[in-house]
Each structure stands twice: as structure tokens, then as C-alpha cells.
Write a structure and sequence with these properties.
The complex is a heterodimer of chains A (401) and B (308).
Chain A lengths: L9 E5 L1 H12 L3 E4 L6 H12 L6 E4 L3 H14 L3 E5 L1 H6 L1 H9 L5 E6 L13 H4 L7 E4 L3 H18 L3 E6 L8 E5 L2 H8 L16 E2 L8 H13 L1 H16 L6 E4 L6 E6 L2 H14 L4 E6 L1 E3 L3 H8 L4 E6 L10 H14 L5 E6 L9 H15 L8 E3 L6
Parallel strand pairs in A: 2-3, 2-4, 4-5, 5-7, 6-7, 11-12, 11-14, 14-15, 15-16
Antiparallel strand pairs in A: 1-8, 6-13, 10-12
Helix pairs in contact in A: 1-2, 1-7, 3-5, 7-10, 11-14, 12-13
Chain B lengths: L3 H6 L15 H12 L4 E5 L3 H6 L11 E3 L5 H17 L8 E7 H6 L2 H9 L5 E6 L39 H6 L5 E6 L3 H13 L4 E6 L3 H5 L5 H10 L6 E4 L2 E4 L9 H5 L14 H21 L5
Parallel strand pairs in B: 1-2, 1-3, 3-4, 4-6, 5-6
Antiparallel strand pairs in B: 5-7, 7-8
Classes of the chains: A alpha/beta (401), B alpha/beta (308).
Chain lengths: 401, 308
């Protein structure tokens, strides 16, 4: 449901991909370099039409691979251009090498990622394995529950990235959001333009009067400091993300945080989830609340930097928590979100946090429905009552054995 | 045509103090290319000897904006830089007239970077791509590349008891670039400063993607004395092992025709990478290599409208 507190917004019916393209049109970056991949293709396809029609001043580079897409983005951003791209799954995987370099060179590229399963087997549908795998790449990662969030996140990402000199990606769940038509409030062009401002890099390659070398080799005497600076920037990103969200809320009315707390104030059992599944889960939370169960939900918006301290505080009073991952680690251990959440609990609460269980769900676009969430909460109630957690990782809606 | 007196008066944009080997031809190439440039340039480089030896943080040998990110993407990086230039200029955010040079070694160009090079050339970015071709992965310790000539010893295609170095012919990358319909493609060799700087000037004046494949003797990988670099570059040309020519809008022109075509053994015998080919039992292989060089030379002469 759209809450139109901002009087100048225009209500439109758009898919996730359309709103991401719309945000890019309004941001009007200097350069976009991209390569097609399902289910993200539409974003850059729609955008390239804006270029063809002269609606944006952007130069569009239709590169020959995602590796070159990110390489061209890196070159363009280093040269002094506001630069954006979009991809998914295998394309994101092919960028891998360059993702780390974009972060290491502190280039504020903004990328729309439509989350999709990774091969093999090849599968074009939504899960978060692609971006989860790049969780240590040094990119800010912002996830969206629906098209409105995707649109709003894209606009905020520009300011966050450029302020922190950190590349930033904004995701939607493949097909579930990317191809679903939803009602969205679109902000007028001039207000987006004003909000994102101009890109003013301190140093850039095209500044020929001040030549400098970017991408030098660091040996044992400097590499560690530069990597520390990158980690430190990520440490300092959360307040900036919150500042931008505050400004966004003050200007456009929609509030954002590092994560959304849903009915958490007095919750005893809760789930932590990322992306579109949160919408389904909230229905079950409401249902349980009506029955007197103290159920709650946390939906992670900002996964990198990971809000470990804040999360530990908000989860501290729970009796039991289920952490749901739409990705698997194949590590002989629980999946990424669980690992990060439980690490936060242990770090900040010692052994005094809630009991935690991990669920892996929805790989390759497998549905997760109300019954599945009912089952998860039923399990949490049992854990709350003292049932032992036999298996730390459970799998939802998969044929096993 | 470049003038050496004028060049000698120009500011050095690739400066001394870099850590390339003594006698390394790559430094000569970088220095001459930048001396030839009449407009401001931004340089992009692939990972390789040139980059690791010239930019050891916090030092840099480059007095021009210099960028490096990875091994296989010098052309893609440069595509981005050049596109940023066009975008900012179009929008009135930039007024300077700037040229773009991308460097890559043969490994970063013939092999791992071929896709990104092909893409950049096909998209017609206005850049000069210079392949400093020393015919193997020298930076990682002399491994075989697609540019390594048949019979050469490398550490991954070594000469041994049953094998005599690389068993395959090298790839003709220059022909592949010609097939991209570029307005300017050329081969040059270290040892011919005038040929090379003239070609760099022509390429930078060309409104479109341009490519120069310059043979660069590597004293370490080829196995010769540092002071012989220029002589070996010239001998490669005099034996027709590495012809120096240019292709302007599809028209071939031979730039250097040896007065007397020397046998390739004269070039090989000065290098340890070909030492095994000098053994009597490898004469058949050496003859095969000579025959291939002769065949390619004849073909090139025809393309250039010349006779032997």
C-alpha cells in the first residue's frame, strides 16, 4: 500500500525493472555501461531507449560482457563520471573480480541488481545467492521488499555511494519484484535531481592539470592500510545511510532505516528475512497477533554494512528467532544471514541472546507461502517452550531424500 | 614524420626511476609513445610488467593521468574513460581536448584481454591500443602466450627431451585487428623510434579506434644481454620475423623492407629461448619455421602490392 504524504508524487503502475529504469532516468548519470541478462535486462533496455530518445544526457556503452560492463563503469567513474549499471546472477558473478576493484579504488558506482539464482543448474528465477556471494566485496548492499522500495533505494544510493566513496548496489528479487506490476509513487524529476545533487569527485582522471595515478601496486608497506581504509569506510557508512534516509523522509515522506521492525516491541518470537518474502511473512505475523501470539519480524534493508549492534539490541528480548536465507552457503554450516545475525548476537549479548534457527528457502524461485511461515512460527513457539534445536539449518519446501 | 631534435626537447611524461629491468623495451615504448603525443593523454594499462614496475605506491613514473585495474580489461577500462570524456564534454562539463592510450602486454592483449579489446574496437571508442608484445607472460616468469612463436622455450612450453618449446604457431593478432575494420592498424618494433613515434602520432590523430602491435625484446625472457635490445628489435625486422607495416583504412603499406632478408637463425641464435633450435637434430624444425616466415612475408608483400 502506498502512503502518499508527499503531495507532488505521481502514482503509477510499474514493474520493479521499470521503476529502477525510471530512477536511473531521473538520476541521469553521465555513463551507463551494461550487458543484458534475465531478469535484469529490461532495466538497461528501457534506459537505452531514454538515451536513444535524447531524454537523458547519458552515454550508454553496450559492452560485450558483464566483466567489461563493470570495467567500463570503473574507467568511467575514475574518469569523473557519475556511473550506473544493472545486472543479475551470472552477470554479477562474471563481474566478481571487478566488484572488489571498484570498492578498492573507492569508486561510487551504483548498480541495480535483480537477484537471481546462480548456475548450475541454470535457473533464471529469484534467489539471493548472487549478491550474498559478494558480501565481502566492499559494496554497500541495499535490498528491497517491493518496487517502491527499489525506486526509493536507488535514489538514496547515489548520495550514499558518493558521500562514502563506496560502490552501492540496490536489489530486487528476480521476477517476484522485477516483473510484478505494482502501484508506485514516482517523484517529479526536478525533485529527484535536487535530492541527488551533482557528482563532484575530489580527483579524477580527466582532470589533466592534476595528473595522478590510480590503481597503483601496493606492496607489504601500503596494501593493508588501504584495505583498512575501505573496511573503515564501511564501518562509517551506517550513519550516512541513516542521514540520507532522514532527508529522504523529510522531503518525500517515506521512512527508511537499516532494517524494518515489524511488531517487534513486545515480540517473543520473530523471523529475520530479506526482500519480497517479508510481505508474505507480515501477513502471518498479523494473523498470529490476532491470536495473541507475540510474533514479530525484522526485514533487513541494509545488509552491508551489516547492522550488527543495532540488530543484537532489537533481538535481545526475544525467546526464539528464525533467520531465513534465500541463499545457501554450501559450507557445511548455516547460510549467510544466519551467520551474520548469530555472530551479532554472540558478539553483543554473549550467551544471553535468543535461541536461533536457520531456514533456507526459495532457491531458484521456489515459492514461499503463508503456510511455510506458519510452520516457521510454530517451530519458534516450540523452541520458546524449550524444544531442542536438533538441526541448526532447516530447508523450506524442498523434497529431501 | 617525427623529428628527434624536437622530441628530445619535449617534457618526459614517462619518467626515470621506474623498476623495469635494465634493457627492457617496454620502458622505451612507453616513453616514446608519450613523447609522440601532441595532445594531453590519459593512459590506461593492463596488469603486467609495465604497470607493476612503474607504479609502486607511493611512486609513479607517469606524469600523465594513469589508470590500472586488472589484467584482461585495459580496453574496457579505456572504453569507460573515453565514454566519460564524451559524456562530460557533450554536457559542457569539460572543455579539454584529450587523447586516450591503452597499454597491454601480449598476454593481456592476445589472450585474456582479447574479448575486451575486440569489444572496444567494435564499439569504435577513440583510443590507441598499444600491445607491447614480448611474446610471453614475462611478468609472471616467461610463460607461453598466444603471441609466443613456434619453437620458443618458455616455462610452460619448455624445450625438453621430447618437445622443442612451443608447438603451435603464434596468433596473427594484427590481422584480427585489421578484420575489425579499424582506420589505423600497425606493427612496429623497438629499435625503430621514428617508425613507432610516427605511428603513434598518426593513430592519435585518427578519429576512431587504432591499434599498434609493437615487438618488444625482453632480455630476461628472450635471454640476451641488456645492451642488445635495439639490435634484436631490428634483427627481428631484418629477418622478416616481425614485419613493420601499417594498414590505413584497409590499405596495407610496408614501412620497412629489409635490403637483404636475413635467415631467421641470425635472430634466433642470439637468444637462449631458441638455443635448442640451433642443435643439428632440430634443423628440420628450424627449416619449418623459416618456411612459415617466408610464406607469411610473401603474403604480406602481396597485401602491400610489392614483390620480393
Amino acid at each position: 500500500m502506498i502512503q502518499t504524504t508527499y503531495s507532488k508524487g505521481k502514482i503509477a503502475a510499474k514493474t520493479g525493472n521499470e521503476v529502477m529504469a525510471e530512477a536511473m532516468r531521473q538520476i541521469a548519470p553521465d555513463v551507463v555501461a551494461a550487458y543484458p541478462i534475465t531478469p535484469a535486462t529490461e532495466i538497461v533496455q528501457i534506459f537505452s531507449q531514454f538515451v536513444a530518445d535524447g531524454i537523458v544526457p547519458t552515454e550508454y556503452v553496450a559492452v560485450e560482457s558483464e566483466h567489461s560492463a563493470m570495467s567500463a563503469c570503473i574507467g568511467a567513474c575514475a574518469a569523473g563520471a557519475r556511473t550506473m549499471t544493472g545486472t543479475s546472477s551470472q552477470g554479477f558473478a562474471l563481474m566478481w573480480e571487478m566488484l572488489y576493484i571498484a570498492a578498492g579504488l573507492r569508486l561510487p558506482i551504483v548498480m541495480a541488481v535483480v537477484n537471481r539464482a546462480l548456475s548450475a543448474p541454470i535457473n533464471i528465477h529469484g534467489d539471493q545467492s548472487d549478491t550474498m556471494g559478494a558480501r565481502d566485496a566492499g559494496w554497500i548492499q541495499i535490498y528491497s521488499e517491493n518496487s517502491q522500495e527499489a525506486y526509493d533505494n536507488m535514489i538514496q544510493a547515489i548520495r550514499i555511494a558518493e558521500k562514502m566513496k563506496l560502490p552501492t548496489l540496490v536489489t530486487t528479487d528476480g521476477f517476484i519484484i522485477s516483473h510484478a506490476m505494482e502501484v508506485v509513487e514516482i517523484i517529479p524529476d526536478e525533485d529527484v535531481k535536487k535530492f541527488v545533487g551533482e557528482f563532484k569527485p575530489e580527483r579524477y582522471l580527466l582532470d589533466i592539470k592534476k595528473p595522478y595515478t590510480l590503481g597503483a601496486i601496493d606492496l607489504q608497506d601500503y596494501y593493508f592500510e588501504h584495505r583498512y581504509q575501505l573496511a573503515d569506510a564501511m564501518n562509517k557508512a551506517a550513519p550516512v545511510i541513516l542521514d540520507v534516509a532522514k532527508d529522504f523522509a523529510a522531503t518525500f515522506g517515506r521512512k527508511y532505516d537499516l532494517y524494518e521492525k515489524y511488531k517487534m516491541d513486545d515480540a517473543e518470537v520473530a523471523i529475520v528475512v530479506i526482500g519480497s518474502a517479508a510481505g508474505t511473512a507480515k501477513v502471518v505475523v498479523d494473523e498470529l497477533r490476532a491470536k495473541g501470539v507475540k510474533a514479530g519480524l525484522i526485514k533487513i534493508r541494509v545488509f552491508r554494512p551489516f547492522p550488527h549492534k543495532e540488530l543484537a539490541a532489537d533481538l535481545a528480548k526475544l525467546k526464539a528467532v528464525a533467520i531465513l536465507d534465500r541463499a545457501d552457503s554450501c559450507a557445511g554450516a548455516p547460510a549467510p544471514l544466519y551467520t551474520d545475525v548469530t555472530s551479532a548476537l554472540y558478539t553483543h549479548l554473549g550467551g544471553n541472546g535468543p535461541r536461533a534457527i536457520n531456514y533456507v528457502y526459495g532457491l531458484g524461485g521456489r515459492d514461499i507461502n503463508l503456510d511455510h511461515f506458519r510452520d516457521v512460527f510454530a517451530k519458534l513457539e516450540k523452541i520458546k517452550a524449550g524444544e531442542k534445536i536438533e538441526k541448526p539449518v532447516e530447508y523450506i519446501n524442498v523434497r529431501i531424500g | 614524420m617525427a623529428n628527434i631534435k624536437e622530441l628530445s626537447k619535449k617534457e618526459e611524461l614517462f619518467t626515470g626511476g621506474h623498476r623495469l629491468c635494465s634493457g627492457c623495451g617496454a620502458g622505451t615504448i612507453a616513453r616514446q609513445a608519450l613523447l609522440a603525443a601532441d595532445k594531453p593523454v590519459v593512459v590506461v594499462s593492463a596488469t603486467g610488467c609495465l604497470e607493476v614496475s612503474s607504479t609502486i605506491f607511493p611512486y609513479s613514473a607517469w606524469n600523465v593521468p594513469f589508470f590500472h585495474s586488472a589484467f584482461e580489461n585495459s580496453a574496457a577500462n579505456c572504453s569507460g574513460v573515453e565514454t566519460a570524456y564524451r559524456s562530460l564534454k557533450k554536457q559542457g562539463k569539460l572543455s579539454d581536448d584529450i587523447r586516450f592510450i591503452a597499454f597491454g602486454g601480449d598476454g593481456g592483449t592476445y589472450d585474456i584481454g582479447l574479448q575486451s579489446l575486440s569489444g572496444a574496437m567494435e564499439r569504435r571508442h577513440r583510443m590507441l591500443y598499444i600491445c607491447y608484445n614480448n611474446e610471453a607472460y614475462m611478468n609472471t616468469g616467461i610463460q607461453r602466450s598466444g603471441a609466443t612463436p613456434k619453437g620458443a622455450h618458455t616455462t610452460t612450453a619448455p624445450a625438453g627431451k621430447v618437445k622443442q618449446g612451443k608447438e603451435q604457431l603464434r596468433k596473427d593478432l594484427t590481422a584480427i585487428m585489421v578484420a575489425h575494420d579499424l582506420p589505423f592498424v600497425a606493427q612496429s618494433a623497438v629499435g625503430y623510434w621514428n617508425d613507432f613515434t610516427t605511428k603513434v602520432q598518426k593513430a592519435l590523430e585518427t578519429d576512431g579506434p587504432t591499434f599498434i602491435n609493437i615487438l618488444q625484446p625482453c632480455r630476461l625472457g628472450w635471454g640476451y644481454k641488456p645492451e642488445d635490445t635495439m639490435m634484436l628489435g631490428r634483427l627481428a625486422v631484418e629477418t622478416c620475423f616481425w614485419p613493420v607495416y601499417e594498414v590505413v583504412n584497409g590499405e596495407y603499406k610496408l614501412n620497412i623492407k629489409p635490403k637483404e632478408k636475413k635467415p631467421v637463425a641470425e635472430f634466433f641464435k642470439l637468444q637462449t629461448r631458441f638455443k635448442h633450435l640451433m642443435k643439428p637434430e632440430n634443423k628440420v624444425l628450424l627449416d619449418e619455421i623459416q618456411a612459415e616466415i617466408d610464406k607469411r612475408w610473401e603474403k604480406l608483400l602481396k597485401l602491400c602490392g610489392q614483390t620480393a
